[in-house]
Amino acid sequence: MPQTCSPQFDARLRQMLTRIVAVLVMLLSFAPFSVSASELLVAHSYKMAGDTSRMRLVVHFDKEPDLRWFLLRDPHRLAIEMPEAEFRFDAEELTARSMVTGVYYGNTGPGTSRLILSFDGPFAVERVEILQNESEPGYRMVADIGAASEEAFQTAMAEQVATTGATAAAKGDRLVKQAVRQTRPFRVVIDPGHGGIDTGAAGVSGTQEKTITLAFALELKKRLEDVGGLDVFLTRDRDLFLRLDERVKIARQNEADLFISIHADSIRQKSVRGATVYTVSDKASDPEAAAKAIRENLADEIAGVVVEEENEEVADILVDLIRRETQGFSIRFARSLVEELKGAIAMIPTNPHRFAGFRVLRAPDVPSVLLELGYLSNPDDEALLRDPEWRAKAANGIASAIGYFAAARQGAGG
Fold first, then answer.
1. What are the DSSP calls for 104-164, one per residue?
2. Which of these three, 110, 134, 169, is where a domain ends?
3. Which of 82, 148, 236, 406 is the most exposed place for a label (fewest CB within 10 A)?
4. Model's pTM, two decimal places?
């Protein structure tokens, strides 16, 4: 005959089960939160474009992400933190190029993921913005990054620590971080054109352009240092090949207030002689300036370097405004340089200030000029370029123009 439980036993059993359920609920409440696959943020596209001095990063998401970014050093890195995400990147797009030496991504703990970019040197994050896509569902993160000095990077790191270590990238919020400009001497970067395997033009007597430009740059640097009150840097101080974008990068890393690229060309018309000053422009001032820009822009390819053209997405309204202001300063210095050189050396008879699309002058935030000292294809110019006394006169004229320009810029607060 089956036994039945007493009412007292049933009550104790129910009480015990209730306590067990309560304990289980409490334990489950402390379990790590797990995001279901359908709720995960999806990062489904990674694109970067630019060169060694400036780049743009674009990452697409299926929904609006809540991102925060911060800087890391040793090596120089940018970390972008986000909610736990599923990454669907094309491996080929992650190949190291421009300023980036490596791309890493993945989950860093329950509910969080990170995208980390490693750079070949110090950099500045100029903008991080979240935008809604216009023609398709989803959002995209756009980050503009430029080469910077170690001083500027460390300043940004210190500001980051002071503001809890990370910066939110809110939708539509432009975050431009610039190091506070310190009181310091005016900085000039002198760029001896060509070098190494890229010999440049050749004179009628065999003089190589790379040799003349380096000799003159070293003498100009010494002249400026003798004047005092200036910080002077060279892109190269020996027979070394540098890509055009590397020259721009050196100017930005040294926080240059002025960039001067030194050249001595050779053309078919051997009667043409005299110095010429060039500034950058999308439209050339004349066919000769356009041809000059084409020759100089081919320097990388002549040396066997494959050059990736900068994606037009890198240009935006902010950069365009900065570039326009910088171009105005470049033109102002170019005019002053022409006037000072007229009293020291012979200038080309017509239009001594010309302009064209020189890649080496494209730093958006550094006033830049290309100075053609003379033409190695002309015997008289070649002889002068080899003459220390003539080079000293030219250096004095350049030093005077720099002095006036520096005083005007510093007097205006930069």
1. EEEEEETTEEEEEEEESS-EEEEEEEEEE-SSSSSEEEEEEEEE--HHHHHHHHHHHHHTT
2. 169
3. 406
4. 0.70
